[in-house]
Amino acid sequence: MGSSIAKWGFALMGGIAAVLLNTAIFLVVCTIAICMDCYTAWALSKRVKNRYPKSNDGKFKSKYANKIFGTMAKIYSLILLAYLLDHYVLIMFDGLFLSNFVTGIFCAIQIWSMLENESSCNGSRWAKVMQKIMVDKASRHFDIDLSELETKEQETDGNN
Questions:
Q1: How far is residue 17's CA from residue 112's CA, in Å, rounded to a whole number?
Q2: Cβ distance 48 to 41 under 8 Å?
Q3: 58, 63, 66, 71: CA torsion to nearest 10
Q4: Per-residue pLDDT at 28 exceeds 70
Q5: Sign of the C-alpha dihedral computed for residues 125, 126, 129 and 133 taken in this order
Q6: Quick one: how far is CA 20 from the chain centroid?
């Protein structure tokens, strides 16, 4: 009996692995994009620390790792769903390459985030041009609640 259950278990794991194998390159590409975004965020934290020494400690914090793993789980699930839809549900369209699109869109978003990180708190000319169309992420690295500053600013504006 136990041998039969083990055989079924290994067969199930083999089937799952066979499906996942077809999505492995997309998962690798997305993982690289996430790691590069994390690196540029850490580099921004270092730049902020160098420019404003009392702003933060410039270190990678483990609380952000949960967000990273959450992002990985979401994109991996989405890629797998796109692959399954493409190959088993929407077969009448003869290959929409949905997992390719999902990976491409996710990587484009990650590249945008990397550009925001690299242009934030950066005095070079290209960074100043980029900051005209991108969010300045430097404020995220200050150990203060920016909503409190905005409230105080609105109160000051209301009194004038």
A1: 32
A2: no
A3: -40
A4: yes
A5: negative
A6: 21
pTM of the model: 0.75
Rounded to an integer, what distance in angstroms lies between the CA atom of residue 21 and that of residue 3? Answer: 26
Is 22 strand, coil or helix?
coil
What mean pLDDT comes out for the span 116-134?
86
The alpha carbon of residue 125 and the mean position of all alpha carbons in its chain are separated, in whole angstroms, by 26
54-62: list long-range contacts, CB under 8 Å, 24+ apart. 55/141, 55/142, 55/143, 56/141, 56/142, 56/143
Q: How far is CA 126 from the centre of its chain?
A: 24
Round to whole Å and give the CA distance between 89 and 93: 10
Give the CB-side neighbour count of residue 53, counting CA atoms within 13 A: 0
Work out the average pLDDT over 118-144.
79
Nearest to 82 by CA among 67, 74, 32: 74
